[in-house]
Amino acid sequence: MNWLPRVLSLIVTAMLVERYARRDFGKLFVLAVASWATLLGPFTSSLNNHSPAAICVVLAMYPLLRVISDGDHRKRFFVLSGFFSAATFTFELPAALLVVVFGALLLNANPKRTLMLFVPAALIPIIAFVALNCVVTGSLSPFYSSYGSDKYLYEHEGIPSYWTNPQGLDRNLDSPLMYFVHCTIGHHGLLSLTPVWLLTLLGWLGWRRWPECRQRTMLLVGAGLTAVVLGFYLTRTQNYNYGGNSVALRWMLWLVPLWLIAMIPVFDAWGSRRGFQIVSSILLAASVVSANLPGSNPWQSTWLLSLMERWKWVDYSQPPPPFEFGHPLWSWFTNLGDPQEKESRTVKFVGTVSRLVGTAEANPLWKEQSAPLIGECALRVTARQWVDVIDTPGVRDVSFDWDENYENSDFERFHYAIGEPLSVKINVEAFNAGMKSSEFLRSRIGGKLPRNELLAAQRVVTGLPQSVEYRPGHIRFLKTPLRPDKAFRCQRAAAQVLFQPKHADHELRYRVIWSRSD
Fold it and tell me: Minimal CA–CA distance to 30: which of 264, 285, 212?
C-alpha cells in the first residue's frame, strides 16, 4: 500500500544524489542503500506511520536543499518543504524538531518567503492533525502523552488492558546503559542490523573534512536530530521496549533519508579507492541481507534478537505463574469441592468433543474401538460423597454422564462401550495435594485400582490417551453468555502426549483447558 509513495521518494532520492554527489560509484551506492538495504523495506507492505514519515522527510529535504545549497528561492520550494516537514510531524511526533530546524534554515535564507509560504503550508497538516486528534480522543494533547494514565491502564468488562501486565519486550527489563547498547549495536541496533550506517557515521565525524560539500549543513542536521531523538527515547525509562515486536528500532526510521545524504561526502572523498569500495560493498551486502530477512512482515522480532534468544544471551519471556489453586494438576478438572460435603455438585459441559476411545488392552469393555470420536454433545460431571466407603473418608464419587437425548451413532457406540454413566472414585486429599492420578484414583472399596481399570480411569480424568501432568499457562480472560457483562479470569493449562493407537501411526494428542480463577 506504500509502494507508490515509496517509488516517488526513491525518484526524489535519485535526484538528490545526482545533483549533490560527484562520483558515480557513490551515486549508485546511496541509491542501492535506499532501495534495498534499509529496514523501511519490510514496512512497505504494512499500514504504519514510519514509512510515510520517511517519505515526507525526502520530499521536504529536496526543496530545502535547493534553497539553502543552490540558492534557488522559487516559491514552490518553500511551500513543499513546509508542508512535508509538518506532515512528518503528524506521523512521528519527535519530528516537530524537524519542522523547527527546516523553518530556521529557510528563515535564514529568505525570511519573507518563509513566513509567507513555509509557515502557512506547514499549518495545513498540523491543523488537520490537531483537529482529528481532538475529534477522536476529545483532547488537544497527542494520545501518546497519556501513557501511564487511565487511558492506557483500565479494565473493560472484566478484561484489563494489555499495559496493566505487559509481556515480552514490553516488560521494561533493561537498564539505560543496556538499552543504549541494544539500540546501537545490540539486537535492535542501528549499526548491527544495518551496518552500512557506519558510512553515515563517518560522514558526520568527518564533517570538517568536507568544506566543498554543498549539503554540509544537512550533515549537522542529521547528526543532531539523530542524537536528540535517540536521547529522547533513552529518557523514557518507563517504556524501554525497542518499539515493541518489530524488525527495527522503528521510531528512528523516519531519519533514514538524513542518514543517506550523509554518505555522499564520504564517497566523494574515498569512492575511487578500491579498498574502500570493497569494504563498503561488504557493508551493503550485509545490510541488504538483514533488511530482507523479515520478508514482508515488519511485526516480528529482529533476526538478531531471535538469534540471541536461541543462544540464551537474552531472555525477555515471562514464565507463566503457578496454578492459583496451589498444587500440580493431573486432570482436566481442578476442584472437587469439600470432601465432607454430602450434597452433590453437577457441572454441565456443552460443545464439541474430540475423544480417543481406548483399546481392549486398556479396558476390556472398550473392545477394539480405537478411532477418534468427534461431534457435539453434552457432558454432565457430578461429584458426590462416596458413602459406601466407611473406613476411607474424603473419597468422592465423580460420574461422567453423556447426554441421553443426543443422537449420534459415534456417541451411541461410545455409550455402549463404556457404559453410562461412567464413574470414578477420587481421594480428594491426594487430589488436592497434587499427587499423580495413580495415587488419587480409588476402587469401590477405597483401595488402589487394578492396572486395567486404573488406565481406563486415568484416560477419563486426564482427557488424554495416557496419564500426564498439565502444565500451567498464562492468565487469560474469557467472555461467555454465562456472565456477559464481565469476563471470567482464567488460567490456561496444557498437556500433551505421544500416543499410538492400534493399527495407526504416532500422533500427538494435545489438550488445553481454561481454569476459572476468579
Answer: 264
Across 251-408, where does the E strand assignment appear? 345-356, 372-385, 395-402
Dist. CA 132–CA 408, nearest whole Å: 57
Res 81 pLDDT > 90: yes
Q: How many CB atoms lie within 10 A of CB 300?
A: 15
Residues 399, 515: Cα–Cα separation, whole Å? 20
Band (418; pLDDT cuts 50, 70, 90): very low
Grid coordinates of 236: 523514557
Smallest Cα–Cα separation from 324: which of 491, 158, 489, 159? 491
% of the chain at pLDDT higher than 70: 85
Greatest Cα pair distance, the chain, in angstroms, is 103
Provide the terminal-to-terminal Cα distance of the chain, rounded to the nearest Å: 44
Q: Are 434 and 471 in contact (CB under 8 A)?
A: no
Question: Using an 8 Å Cβ cutoff, are 255 and 229 in contact?
Answer: yes
Confidence of residue 382 (pLDDT cuts 50, 70, 90): confident
Residue range 8-21, pLDDT digits in tens? 999 999 999 999 99
Cβ neighbours of residue 300 closer than 8 Å, sequence gap 6 or more: 245, 246, 247, 294
Q: Which residues pair with 426 in a beta bridge?
A: 396, 441
Buried b (16+ CB within 10 A) or exposed e, 348-380: eeeeebebbbbbeebbebbeebbeebeeebebb
| pLDDT surpasses 90 at 306 | yes
**Domains of the chain: which residue ranges?**
3-142+167-310, 345-516
Order of strands, sheet of 441-442, starting from the edge strand that comes earlier in the sequence: 345-356, 372-385, 395-402, 422-427, 441-442
